[in-house]
Write a structure and sequence with these properties.
By secondary structure, the chain is an alpha/beta fold. Helices cover 48% and strands 18% of the residues. The protein has a six-stranded parallel sheet, with helices on both faces. A two-stranded antiparallel ribbon has the order 5-6. α1 (3-14) crosses α2, α1 packs parallel to α7 and α3 packs parallel to α5. Thiamine diphosphate (TPP) binds at residues 22-26, 44, 46, 70-73, 99, 101-105, 110.
């Protein structure tokens, strides 16, 4: 399975979600499908996309957050699984694309290529719903079920270690940062207005 095909299959589901990705290949692929102000591509801070997604999910419980992670990044911050499991935000979906490699920096093999099972680690960490998928169809179904379930879910999806045609993104980190922050503000204000309307 190619990660770009998996992303394309779930792209419509992501449109209204708050999306945080790791840097490199997955960021470039999502960007190539169409950037949105509610997408943040976390540069430099390898391993921390899930931590950032957790913080947003906890502070914006009425909004769905999706984190697009990688095996190398998750292996650098395995404690994130225990922390996510401790707080269990039902509005957080954690997707791990496991290509068994540090693809974005040349393709060095990671521990998942020699037996480490990230789904098992997520289960043992206490993540309430953990799924594994190796086909586009099962991936799409898992994502759509997770988004409906209101249960913290980690989906580990094996993908081929194939780089995007281009890593170019015509968006600087700072521009992305301010645009994303404003987009979260708009979402927050909209839900405040809806709450006020309901209470009238
Ligand atoms: C602390 C830190 N170490 C190393 C890097 C360099 N680096 C950037 S992306 C990357 C690989 C990420 O691997 P993975 O999460 O498996 O995603 P993939 O590139 O395979 O899609 C590395 C090592 C970094 N940005 N920060």
């Amino acid at each position: 399975m190619l990660r770009i095909d998996a992303l394309q299959a779930i792209y419509p589901d992501l449109e209204d979600c708050i999306v945080v990705t790791i840097m490199g290949a997955v960021a470039a692929e999502l960007y190539s499908l169409g950037h949105r102000p509610n997408f943040f591509y976390l540069e430099h801070a390898m391993g921390l996309a899930s931590s950032m997604g957790l913080g947003i999910a906890l502070s914006m419980p009425e909004h769905q957050v999706v984190v697009l992670d990688g095996d190398g990044s998750l292996l650098m911050n395995l404690g994130t699984l225990s922390t996510m499991a401790r707080y269990k935000p039902g509005n957080l979906l954690h997707i791990v694309f496991d290509n068994e490699s540090l693809l974005s920096v040349g393709g060095f093999p990671t521990a998942t290529s020699s037996g480490t099972n990230l789904a098992d680690i997520a289960r043992a960490s206490g993540v309430p719903c953990v799924k594994e998928s190796g086909t586009i169809q099962s991936f799409q179904v898992s994502v759509s079920e997770a988004l409906k379930s209101k249960t913290l879910t980690t989906i580990v999806s094996k993908v081929e270690a194939i780089s995007p045609n281009s890593f170019h993104m015509d968006l600087t980190l700072l521009e992305n940062r301010f645009q994303f922050w404003r987009s979260l503000q708009v979402m927050r204000n909209q839900s405040k207005t809806r709450k006020t309307e309901r209470n009238k």
